[in-house]
Each structure stands twice: as C-alpha cells, then as structure tokens.
C-alpha cells in the first residue's frame, strides 16, 4: 500500500486497542526467572515469539499461564519460577528466536551458572550478542564459547 486516501470531509474519532510491545514483553518474561513469586504481565501481544519464550521458560521449570481471553489485542500471562531452574537453554528452542539470549542474565543471576545455545539466524541480517556477553563480563561473569553454547559462571549474588 502506497497511501491511504480519506474522502468525506468528516472528522474521524474513536478508539483503537493497541497491544503491548514484543521487545518489552520478552525481557519481562525472561525476568520471571529472577524470583519464585508470580509475575503477571498484561497486554502481552499475541505473537509466536511470546509462545516460543513461554516454551523456553517452561523448559526451565517456569509455570506459564496464558489467558486466551483478552481485551483488544493483548493478553495476560502469569509466570512463576520454581525454587531451582535448569541452567541449560538448548538449541532446539533457542534457534527459533534470537531473543532467547535474554535468559542468560537471569539464569546466571539466579543459579550462578548458565549454558545458553547461540541463537539461530536472523532474516534481517547478522545481529551479534557480543553486547550481552560484554555486559555479563563487566558484572564479573566468566564467559566461554564452546560447541555453539555460551557458558557463563558467576558467584551467586554478585
């Protein structure tokens, strides 16, 4: 579509329901790994990436409740992490979404260790994760890359 042409000479008015932003919801979902308390997010967009992040978190033991009924385009998501979480984010899930790297920090903070597969390709080009790794190192983590996985270790609570 090149343009929208409106004719009629009448003022437009009304409301439009807008869902939350994917790039805000994904880090918040990953942050659920930082606490055992329930985390309730509202107005989460109905996108495949939300389901992929939910699958990744379920693999770490997080209980995920996706409310199908919603107002507008968003929905409510309730997440609750168990007392201990698996430190491994395997390739078969991480390859589906580059944002999967967002679990690296919370897993590292929670358990002192994280093993996260390098994310898969991206349709819009190369998007390295070096800034994530540099941030973890600047906070005291030891980072190594082995066999397609990021291995991170840090003292718990640092």
Helix coverage percent of residues?
A: 25-40%
| Major β-sheet profile | 4 strands, mixed
Q: Please, what is the average pLDDT?
A: 86
> Terminal Cα separation, in Å?
52 Å
- SSE succession: HEHEEEHHEHEE
Radius of gyration: 19 Å
| Total helical segments | 5
The low-pLDDT segments are none
Written overview of the protein:
The chain is built from five helices and seven strands. By secondary structure, it is α+β, with helices and mostly antiparallel strands. It has a four-stranded mixed sheet with strand order 4-5-7-6. A hairpin with a 2-residue loop joins β6 and β7. The longest helix has 12 residues, at 48-59.
Can you summarize this structure?
By secondary structure, the protein is α+β, with helices and mostly antiparallel strands. It has helices spanning 22-31, 48-59, 91-94, 104-111, 130-138; strands at residues 39-44, 63-66, 75-80, 88-89, 113-117, 142-146, 149-153.
């Amino acid at each position: 579509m090149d343009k929208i042409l409106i004719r009629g000479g009448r003022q437009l008015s009304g409301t439009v329901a807008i869902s939350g932003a994917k790039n805000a919801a994904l880090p918040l979902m990953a942050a659920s790994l930082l606490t055992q308390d329930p985390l309730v997010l509202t107005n989460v967009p109905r996108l495949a990436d939300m389901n992929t992040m939910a699958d990744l978190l379920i693999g770490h033991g997080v209980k995920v409740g996706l409310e199908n009924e919603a107002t507008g385009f968003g929905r409510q998501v309730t997440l609750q992490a168990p007392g201990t979480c698996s430190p491994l984010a395997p390739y078969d899930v991480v390859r589906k979404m580059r944002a999967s790297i967002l679990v690296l920090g919370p897993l590292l903070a929670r358990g002192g260790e994280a093993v996260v597969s390098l994310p898969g390709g991206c349709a819009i080009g190369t998007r390295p994760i070096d800034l994530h790794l540099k941030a973890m190192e600047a906070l005291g983590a030891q980072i190594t890359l082995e066999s397609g996985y990021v291995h991170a270790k840090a003292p718990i609570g640092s």
